[in-house]
């Protein structure tokens, strides 16, 4: 038996591993309770109104909310293509919380292994956690098998691990992923993996709320065996289409190139089409706005001491250090 | 009369005939398999959709199970991929343990057992077709509720409703390989022309004792359609 399987001495409880879905049933119960309470409050209000009582202080629906707090979803544009020398992945950098931009420069191209990177759309926490978990599994597998080179680790292994994980959670883990990379067995490969656990292999694909804008660009200009510079420009155009035409996507464009020999070129940011600094710098303010101190004359001043204010009697004691 | 589907979430007349969850990727599909003289012919369209959006226009729904047995998938993409991976795994073990090719009916029964025992949580309609040295070319239809039906030809997916009449009228026992391929292409083209969730290309697979042969017909070279 390995020492790692024995519970630690003095530890009373070991937290369960993996994702936790306790809150799903809690939220359902809570929502049901709220709905009942709202109906009761509404009935009470109607009853009071019918009998000519004052209903002004009673809030409609008893002040209960209409929905549970929502998880942070990344309205996203992610895309990837296979080219002559490997794979190019691209992503925007906006994270949203409802209508609000929660983060202007977030990282959506995740590390999975030295020869594989993964773009994530869906719930930010789920894409982060899923890719990190599989990255850890693959690194342990690589060490266990004594694989000589990064590209000995197969893409197929990563796809199987991720889709089995997502299938097990029946779509409750909202991770829509584009996995790109190279391996010795099949060369450069690109896969899309949906939250319910289905996977497909593509030569070019896009996902997220901006995927319709991005795939239009890819469909019109992708061709087999593209040069690296052309491939990067195409993915930049696809992501920019998402940034400017999809409200859920925005800010910068990140790019990750994985070449056939396993070399990685991670460009963050690759494009900054929404950089406001030059525009702000170009604004010349009227000299009338720059007022010197003392411009407003002091006409009168008065000092009123605080009534009954006493300073606490503080004795400083040296801390014992020996 | 026994109903082929028992699952309470499945209603073939609704706009969501597979009981898919929101946002689930499905193979709204036309799939078709039929035996001919010396083997079986499988055919499928290549569209995969999520609601009204086609997430892929070149999907391969003809899925490997063992050297001479394949399955055609319809319903949820995630569910059918997961269960065909399991059957593929079982069959590879069986091949090693027995030292011979598994029978088509073994593959079909393995698939049926999984679909039946998980009927409440799966949306999967699968056709298993293949060749074995005992019974030759055969076709089994494993439907939504978990029934396993041995058929002279099998249709599946949302597009199948449009071509039952065509197949009833045109299918004959003991056709040649070329006749079978032509009929499969024609039938799937007709389904693709009338069913919104079927489309793209037509893929076929010929399974015989000599080996397997794939064939792809692009959308602009189909024997029929589109309908205007």
Automatic annotation (TrEMBL), chain A:
<keyword id="KW-0539">Nucleus</keyword>
<dbReference type="InterPro" id="IPR023333">
    <property type="entry name" value="Proteasome_suB-type"/>
</dbReference>
<keyword id="KW-0645">Protease</keyword>
<keyword id="KW-0647">Proteasome</keyword>
<keyword id="KW-0963">Cytoplasm</keyword>
<dbReference type="GO" id="GO:0005634">
    <property type="term" value="C:nucleus"/>
</dbReference>
<keyword id="KW-0888">Threonine protease</keyword>
<feature type="active site" description="Nucleophile">
    <location>
        <position position="76"/>
    </location>
</feature>
<dbReference type="InterPro" id="IPR000243">
    <property type="entry name" value="Pept_T1A_subB"/>
</dbReference>
<protein>
    <recommendedName>
        <fullName>proteasome endopeptidase complex</fullName>
        <ecNumber>3.4.25.1</ecNumber>
    </recommendedName>
</protein>
<dbReference type="GO" id="GO:0005737">
    <property type="term" value="C:cytoplasm"/>
</dbReference>
<dbReference type="GO" id="GO:0004298">
    <property type="term" value="F:threonine-type endopeptidase activity"/>
</dbReference>
<dbReference type="InterPro" id="IPR016050">
    <property type="entry name" value="Proteasome_bsu_CS"/>
</dbReference>
<dbReference type="Pfam" id="PF00227">
    <property type="entry name" value="Proteasome"/>
</dbReference>
<dbReference type="InterPro" id="IPR001353">
    <property type="entry name" value="Proteasome_sua/b"/>
</dbReference>
<dbReference type="GO" id="GO:0005839">
    <property type="term" value="C:proteasome core complex"/>
</dbReference>
<dbReference type="GO" id="GO:0051603">
    <property type="term" value="P:proteolysis involved in protein catabolic process"/>
</dbReference>
<keyword id="KW-0378">Hydrolase</keyword>
<dbReference type="InterPro" id="IPR029055">
    <property type="entry name" value="Ntn_hydrolases_N"/>
</dbReference>
UniProtKB/TrEMBL annotation, chain B:
<keyword id="KW-0963">Cytoplasm</keyword>
<keyword id="KW-0378">Hydrolase</keyword>
<dbReference type="InterPro" id="IPR000243">
    <property type="entry name" value="Pept_T1A_subB"/>
</dbReference>
<keyword id="KW-0645">Protease</keyword>
<feature type="compositionally biased region" description="Polar residues">
    <location>
        <begin position="1"/>
        <end position="17"/>
    </location>
</feature>
<dbReference type="GO" id="GO:0051603">
    <property type="term" value="P:proteolysis involved in protein catabolic process"/>
</dbReference>
<comment type="function">
    <text>Component of the proteasome, a multicatalytic proteinase complex which is characterized by its ability to cleave peptides with Arg, Phe, Tyr, Leu, and Glu adjacent to the leaving group at neutral or slightly basic pH. The proteasome has an ATP-dependent proteolytic activity.</text>
</comment>
<dbReference type="GO" id="GO:0019774">
    <property type="term" value="C:proteasome core complex, beta-subunit complex"/>
</dbReference>
<dbReference type="GO" id="GO:0004298">
    <property type="term" value="F:threonine-type endopeptidase activity"/>
</dbReference>
<dbReference type="InterPro" id="IPR023333">
    <property type="entry name" value="Proteasome_suB-type"/>
</dbReference>
<feature type="region of interest" description="Disordered">
    <location>
        <begin position="1"/>
        <end position="20"/>
    </location>
</feature>
<dbReference type="Pfam" id="PF00227">
    <property type="entry name" value="Proteasome"/>
</dbReference>
<feature type="active site" description="Nucleophile">
    <location>
        <position position="29"/>
    </location>
</feature>
<keyword id="KW-0647">Proteasome</keyword>
<dbReference type="GO" id="GO:0005634">
    <property type="term" value="C:nucleus"/>
</dbReference>
<keyword id="KW-0888">Threonine protease</keyword>
<dbReference type="InterPro" id="IPR029055">
    <property type="entry name" value="Ntn_hydrolases_N"/>
</dbReference>
<protein>
    <recommendedName>
        <fullName>Proteasome subunit beta</fullName>
    </recommendedName>
</protein>
<dbReference type="InterPro" id="IPR001353">
    <property type="entry name" value="Proteasome_sua/b"/>
</dbReference>
<dbReference type="InterPro" id="IPR016050">
    <property type="entry name" value="Proteasome_bsu_CS"/>
</dbReference>
<dbReference type="GO" id="GO:0005737">
    <property type="term" value="C:cytoplasm"/>
</dbReference>
<keyword id="KW-0539">Nucleus</keyword>
